[in-house]
Structure formats: structure tokens, C-alpha cells
Amino acid sequence: MTRKDRKRVAIAGAGNVGRSIAAELIENGHEVTLLERELRALKTRSVPGATWVQADACELSALEDAGLQNFDVVIAATGDDKANLVVSLLAKTEFGVRRVVARVNHPKNEWLFSEAWGVDVAVSTPRMLTALVEEAVSVGDLVRLMRFMQGQASLVELTLAADSPLAGQRIGDVPLPPDSALVAILREGRVVLPAPEGTLEGGDEVLAVASTPEVEAELARLLAGEPGEPSEVLDIAATAAVDGGESSGDPASGAFRHQD
Fold first, then answer.
1. Which residues of the chain have pLDDT under 50?
2. Do the beta carbons of residue 142 and residue 159 sit within 8 Å?
3. 212-253: per-residue pLDDT in tens?
4. Fewer CB near the last or first residue (10 Å), C or N of the chain?
5. For position 219, what pLDDT does the model report?
6. Residue 2 carries which DSSP code?
7. Residue 54: Cβ-neighbour burial (10 angstroms; 0-12, 13-18, 19+)
């Protein structure tokens, strides 16, 4: 990794999730600082390559002391959705951090994790685990893996059925919707780059990016090989309200729960 590629990353929350992320980032050559409020959670030996700071990441003064404005990325990884939203908002609005990633502990709170709260990418483990089950039995259904908060783009996945009309077709000839792109193909345990001269095969797990929900729906119809109405999109990283609720921007209106 070049110096240009190396990022300074601050992680709020040094629980199992925060420490695991820190260890992975350090292994990949990044500079990591862990912010943890509880003294008992400062397990410095568990991630010796990180800088450890005892601080409440929801306090503006604590973030100022940590020099948050000097970080490239902030990850809000606590087990409390309220805390993660506060950290995200402060990081983006007070310190101008370019990229803010937030952990969502409970799916009912996902609608709050948006640009309005400073979140660029929201990661919901419950949603992802649910989708792994759905995806395993849903050949031909488009699965939304992640939605990027800057804009409406999303990362989606679909497993081509053995009898898909696209099986055997040259990738360069696939009529992809505008503002969409194939990112990778998983085939028999290998990652295949979707070169124009390559072909799609039944059983391929196709990863793609769609710029809007409308493009996503077109992509679902195309990859499912069905004319007319688009196939259902299984959402594992929804940013809209669960059960039809609308975002008001008021944290008190959400159903917050704490995840240990």
C-alpha cells in the first residue's frame, strides 16, 4: 500500500466489532485510532497496533481533543444506535470527515442512518444475516447488499438460474440499463472480472451497481430474464423506513434499542 492509499481511521466503540474492524484495517496498512468511553473496554493488548483513547465519542470536546478533523474515515461501531448517529453527525458536520460509516444494530432504526445524520454508508448486520438466508434460497431474485448514502446507488447481487436466457451470452452484448455496471462474477468459488468478451453462465453470482431504485428494478428484470414487471428486490441494506415509516430527522421518533 502506498502512502497515498493509507487512511487515518477513527473507530468509536472498542467492543468486539470495533476491535475486529481495527485489526483488519491495521493488517491492511491503515492507521487506526480506537475511541472507547469505558475503561474496562480498553483492551489494548487485543489490538496492539492501534492508538487507544479513552473518550466519549458523543462529546464534542472529546472529539476535538482526538483531532477528528485529521481523519479520513470515521466508523461509528458502538452497540447503541443513538450513539452511532450522534458520532456520525458530529464527524460530518463539525469536523468535515470525508467518509462516515455507521453500524446499525437494529433494522427498525435504519431509516435514520442517512445523509441527514452524516452517514455515508450504513452497515446493518441483522439485515445482512437475514439476506444470506434469503439469498441462499432465492435464485433469480435480486438481493440488495448495500446502499451508498451519497446518492441512491446500491450494490446488488443475483444468482443466475441454470436456464437463464443470459446463460452463455457474451457480457459485452448484455443490454445493461443506463447508469448500471457489472462489478464482479462469483463462479465456482472464483472471482471473475466481467470483461466484455467473457460470458455469463448459469449459477453465476453476479454483483452489480445500480444508480437508482428504478435502474435497480430494470436490472432485476434483465438478470432474472423475465419480461414485463421487475422481479422483487430483497433488501438487506434498506435506508428507507421499515414498515412504511417516514424519516422525520428526529431521533426521538425512532424505536431505539441497545445492542450489547
1. 136-138, 227-260
2. no
3. 888 888 888 888 765 434 344 444 343 322 223 333 333 333
4. C
5. 85
6. -
7. middle
Q: What is the pLDDT of residue 32?
A: 96
Q: What residues contact residue 209 under an 8 Å CB cut-off, 6+ apart? A: 153, 154, 155, 156, 180, 181, 183
Going from N- to C-terminal start, the domains of the chain cover 8-119, 128-235
Assigned C-alpha cell, 2: 502506498
* CA 131 – CA 139 distance, rounded (Å): 12
- Convert the pLDDT of each residue in 15-30 to its tens digit: 989 999 999 899 889 9
Among 160, 178, 180, residue whose Cα is nearest residue 168: 160
Hey, which CATH number is domain 8-119, 3.40.47.10, 3.40.1350.10, 3.40.50.300, 3.40.50.720? 3.40.50.720
pTM (two decimals): 0.57
Task: Quote the CA–CA distance of 173 and 150 in Å, as a whole number.
Answer: 30
